[in-house]
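New to this. Please check this protein:
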Amino acid sequence: MLWSMLAVALGFLGTAVLGLLGVRVFVEVRRLGRQVARTAERIGRAAEELEKASLHLARAGDGLPHRRSAAGGGGTPRTPSP
């Protein structure tokens, strides 16, 4: 009788430990989910800011004089002309 009561007690204790660990995992998963959501929002805001900055830069660059390619097409100022 003692062994059967001990087995039931250990079974209950094991189930309680597994339940406690399950609750801890659930809490950590929720925390990680919130952190991922915050990070995704920050990445989205950074992408929007980068897009705005690139538009301003493109508008500012429209007024600059364009660089002409070297004679013969494809040469760079560093390459000697034949």
Remarks:
- The chain has a mean pLDDT of 85.
- Residues 47 and 53 are 10 Å apart (CA to CA).
- The two ends are 104 Å apart (CA to CA).
